[in-house]
Amino acid sequence: MSAVIDTHAQDHHHGPAKGITRWLYTTNHKDIGTMYLVFSFAMFLLGGTMAMVIRAELFQPGLQIVEPEFFNQMTTMHGLIMVFGAVMPAFVGLANWMLPMMIGAPDMALPRMNNWSFWLLPCAFLILVSTLFMSGGAPNFGWTFYAPLSTTYGPPSTTFFIFAVHIMGVSSIMGAINVIATILNLRAPGMTLMKMPLFVWTWLITAFLLIAVMPVLAGVVTMMLMDINFGTSFFNAAGGGDPVLFQHVFWFFGHPEVYIMILPAFGAVSHIIPAFARKPLFGYASMVYAVGAIALLSFVVWAHHMFTVGVPLAGELFFMYATMLIAVPTGVKVFNWVATMFRGAMTFEAPMLFAVAFVILFTIGGFSGLMLAIAPADFQYHDTYFVVAHFHYVLVPGAIFGIFASAYFWLPKWTGNMYDETLAKTHFWLSFVGMNLAFFPMHFLGLAGMPRRIPDYALQFADFNMVSSIGAFMFGATQLLFLFIVVKCARGGEKAPAKPWDGAEGLEWTLPSPAPYHTFTTPPEVK
Amino acid sequence: MAETPETGNGGGPHQAPRSNARVVGWCLAGVVAMFGFGFALVPLYDVFCEITGINGKTAGRYEATSELLSDRSRTVEVQFIAQNGPDMPWVFRPVVHSVRVHPGEPTQVAFYAENPTAVGMIGQAVPSLAPAEGALYFHKTECFCFNQQTLAAGEVTEMPLVFIVDSALPEHITKLTLSYTLYDQGEAPVLSGRNSDPVVTTIIDNG
């Protein structure tokens, strides 16, 4: 994408600097947004490569390709890299690019901090990935790093992992503060809170979630650090601590975290579906309140991840009902998206394909979540592939399809060129088929009792695992096509008009394509 | 990007109802508060477990305020389990594996411990009671688990436990299982004189 911004920058007297220092020192929200997106895609490929190792090992029963110890490092690093390296930075990148243009601001409110919060990320992931080459190997205790597996029994590299989590936490918190300051302070005159585009709303709420829970994550890894290195006993029963406490603190962070990864996608889809249905979004206010309700409820459901640790009956019932309650605002959103499409003049360009698949497949993931929320049934599903199927259904066609839909939707605005629609549709269909082939059989595997995080399995699971692996290879290879499409679009192609989509609405479409290096230096008037 | 007001104090063309510094200040306060909250969960969790008896955590030393009435019409079986934590070389077992008691009656039992190694060691026993519902009704007036235990090389000891099952124990509970896990707390400091009594080193509050 850099090439494109360079060629157009000459039109403006405040063009970007040349060379590497442009990217090192930039405070421009578009440059930083681009860096976030490129970084997150690189992490997506790295985490995806690890997923390919996992699926290759699971292609057949028995141990073929990697040692079990390395397999565990792969599952751990895959999860950590995808959550903290791919999905979260991708949404921060979208926020950087789009928030100022959507609210009519010249830039983010705190541009220098913006630069810093980006450049912390490569440092954090350099540290995290370097653990693969340390003696004792990378973290191997799963992305949830339960104590005492990660404290008493963790590899020596665990301390590096903790430091990496600290740095990425600082980065996320700074990003969130920037988003809040931008949205609260830099809206164009006349843009009241209830006139804000939904992507802005969902990011505002996401930013509050980040501020509320990233410090708790920092706290729990700090406790681990002290248990490992300084002889405290937060999670060590011998010293009066309790390993179950770890799970409570971790999931107090962990459950809002899953909404951090999906709410911005809700916002983006709420722009894309009206644009391609050529109808205004159905139920704007209810969408805002639904996101708020989901965010609030996300703080009181954490123990549904730990039904089997010995929660008392009253607790199991409370967390079961609270979890099911989340289906209500989520259902409001799904019905609103469907109602927006209903009787719309719909066309199915790539962003819309990804958005419609998002609605359908995310709903499937939501339903398997409801099944898991049933406390007595969870004892059967717990730690099986059913859980793996569930969270991949909400994260892959949820978060990641949401990001793909956003990328195709706004690529013309970013690059000034239309992407190749035929290739993009091919990317969609290959991703759609590959993803369902990979993850749908996991439901059956889980219900049949296949545990997660194992490199080998009983013979009766062989067929479904082979199908799943083939689907995973297909999905993985297809993402190289996405890289090709984006590079091709950035290098040239049919020139995009200011508003390439008929039904699209919002301030970003009043700007020329590609968006100039500096936009809205005088604020637009919002009626 | 010089034209972007860094502190947005209303001087720019944009309406700035709040200054960025204030928003950042509030956000940072939130971050600090939530970091503290994460750590506050540790004592909150202990208090919550102690009040509700979740997790089989038994309370600390019990001070009877008045003579408990012994309920001779009921008998409750109390079983004892002893196990060693990781790499703990001591021999550790209950002297009697099970006693039948009347609620309200103080009962004394003992646990056998032996340090077979050639060095003095410190151990700490951590209790857990099942069913967890009964944890609130199991009172210890004296317990070796209140303190760390120090055994010299080859030393053998019987460690006492005095407990009372509360007469308010729900009717449907007829059996309580008390489990102790003994953890290695490291080598004992070399003592000047021979001391066969368990040495009180630290008092921890998890009972």
What does this molecule look like?
- The complex is a heterodimer of chains A (527) and B (207).
- Chain A is an all-alpha fold and 527 residues long.
- Chain A contains 17 helices and no strands.
- Chain A has helices at residues 2-9, 20-25, 29-57, 68-103, 111-130, 158-185, 198-229, 243-260, 263-277, 284-297, 313-325, 327-341, 350-373, 375-381, 385-415, 421-447, 462-491.
- In chain A, helix 3 runs antiparallel to helix 4 (68-103) and helix 16 (421-447) runs antiparallel to helix 17.
- The longest helix of chain A has 36 residues, at 68-103.
- Chain B is of the alpha+beta class.
- Chain B contains one helix and nine strands.
- Chain B has one helix at 20-52, and strands spanning 76-84, 91-94, 98-101, 107-114, 121-130, 138-143, 149-151, 156-165, 175-187.
- In chain B, strands 3-1-9-5-7 form a five-stranded mixed sheet, with no helix packed on it. Chain B has a four-stranded antiparallel sheet with strand order 2-4-8-6, with no helix packed on it.
- The longest helix of chain B is centred in the first third of the chain and has 33 residues, at 20-52.
- Chain B is flat.
- Chains A and B meet through helix 6, helix 7 and helix 8 of A and helix 1 and strand 9 of B.
Provide a compact summary of the structure.
Chain A is an all-alpha fold and about 525 residues long.
What are the salient characteristics of this protein?
heterodimer; A: 527 residues; mainly alpha; Cytochrome C Oxidase, Chain A; 17 helices; 67% helix; B: alpha+beta; Ctag/Cox11 (Pfam 04442); 2 domains; 5-stranded mixed sheet; 4-stranded antiparallel sheet; 32% strand; metal-binding (chain A); transmembrane (chain A); membrane (chain A); Cyt_c_Oxase_su1_BS (chain A); electron transport (chain A)
